[in-house]
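> forwarded from #structure-qc
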């Protein structure tokens, strides 16, 4: 049994305590029992839920592994992480899904809900064995990291996954439009003489995928499409319109697309290379508006660690990806606490991703699973990548002063992180 004392619930000034027993929340303000942890006046919330992280197991453990990635997630306040299947080999085999879940369960960090590949080898042609992957514990299907060029295969996948009650997430970029672009196409890419990736690559792909869903929906097929790391204003307008028509389409936005723009590439530093690319301030402003009006469903980080040597390569050769699961909440809270408000930010990182997945809404009521985070909303601290649990000990926000740092993360009633 654990009792966490000296904490406040969101919107309340009352100091309370919560007691946890057998993995569940036993109750509030009971006699303080068991091990006592001082919450130091922090704010308690359900543990964050991440729908998009690259943990690199199996096969790419020089970048990250389950232990470093899930420890990093817990340090970021996350209780649950959906890992991406673009590993080596690809997670397209039920045995791999089972191994990942078993391995993660023994670590004591964030809980793992692995996504499985939609197609065999993520090659985009032949569907993976979705039924068996679901049985093994796959949380969703996605070929993330690659784009679903074969529309017919995606359509079949949406039908099959829909009949299983599963979400398909898509990395929405048209490969032929994206071509060899390494950053957003626009005045900055032109000034730098770098190959651009146009907004139309994303918007055109989102339009195609929405049309596929619309056709299935009209036939009564329960397809569910989730657009990952949506980055452009035009793609968001398409999702907004699809929702207005009642189509089962959701989308996520990443904090890096809200806080960085293509101007950052003037440094020629590949730390800013990400797919889809950093866009313009107008895009970022539009995405923020989408978070406010509800047309964006949730936040996700797309934590995508690579080795320092890989990210120190030339922009043309470096792999895409930004890793920052440990600072996503402080970044959102520091930058947008005033505009969005604490409650909306927390919703976007807890209940909202649960809604996208069709999972029960996380709450802190007695009897519920004890997955919670204590956040210090006041102490300002500089981002120090040397302290990261992630193997990627570098980040665009190094040295920046942020507040809202998690001080304690509890997963399944056990301490998964304590600062
Ligand atoms: O920037 C990205 N990195 N985008 C992706 O879709 C894949 C990811 C990765 O695996 O590194
Ligand atoms: Zn992606």
């Amino acid at each position: 049994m654990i009792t966490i004392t000296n904490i406040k619930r969101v919107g309340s000034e009352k100091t309370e305590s919560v007691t946890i027993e057998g993995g569940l929340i036993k109750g509030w303000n009971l006699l303080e029992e068991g091990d006592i942890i001082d919450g130091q006046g922090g704010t308690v919330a359900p543990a964050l839920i991440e729908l998009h992280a690259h943990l690199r197991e199996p096969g790419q453990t020089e970048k990250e592994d389950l232990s470093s990635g899930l420890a990093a997630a817990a340090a970021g306040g996350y209780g649950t992480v959906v890992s991406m299947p673009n590993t080596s080999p690809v997670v397209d085999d039920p045995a791999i899904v089972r191994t990942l879940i078993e391995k993660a369960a023994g670590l004591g960090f964030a809980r793992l809900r692995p996504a499985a590949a939609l197609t065999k080898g993520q090659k985009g042609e032949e569907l993976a064995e979705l039924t068996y992957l679901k049985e093994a514990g796959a949380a969703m299907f996605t070929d993330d990291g690659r784009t679903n060029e074969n529309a017919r295969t995606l359509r079949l996948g949406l039908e099959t996954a829909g009949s299983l009650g599963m979400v398909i997430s898509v990395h929405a970029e048209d490969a032929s439009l994206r071509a060899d672009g390494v950053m957003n196409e626009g005045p900055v890419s032109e000034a730098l003489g770098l190959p651009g990736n146009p907004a139309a690559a994303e918007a055109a792909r989102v339009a195609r995928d929405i049309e596929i869903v619309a056709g299935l929906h009209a036939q009564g097929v329960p397809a569910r499409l989730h657009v990952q790391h949506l980055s452009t204003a035009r793609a968001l307008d398409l999702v907004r319109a699809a929702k207005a028509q009642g189509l089962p389409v959701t989308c996520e936005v990443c904090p890096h697309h809200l806080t960085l723009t293509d101007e950052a590439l003037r440094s020629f530093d590949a730390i800013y290379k990400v797919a889809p690319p950093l866009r313009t301030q107008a895009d970022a402003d539009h995405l923020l508006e989408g978070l406010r009006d509800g047309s964006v469903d949730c936040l996700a980080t797309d934590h995508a660690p690579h080795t320092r040597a890989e990210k120190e390569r030339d922009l043309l050769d470096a792999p895409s990806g930004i890793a920052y699961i440990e600072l996503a909440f402080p970044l959102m809270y520091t930058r947008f606490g005033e505009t969005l408000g604490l409650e909306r930010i927390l919703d976007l990182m807890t209940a909202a991703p649960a809604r996208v997945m069709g999972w029960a809404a996380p709450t802190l009521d007695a009897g519920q699973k004890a997955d919670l985070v204590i956040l210090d909303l006041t102490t300002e601290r500089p981002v120090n990548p040397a302290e990261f649990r992630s193997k990627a000990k570098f980040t665009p926000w190094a040295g920046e002063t942020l507040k809202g740092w998690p001080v304690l993360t509890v997963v399944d009633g056990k301490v998964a992180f304590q600062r």
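QC bot note: The chain has a mean pLDDT of 98. Residues 144-145, 171, 228-229 surround zinc ion (ligand 2) (CB under 6 Å).
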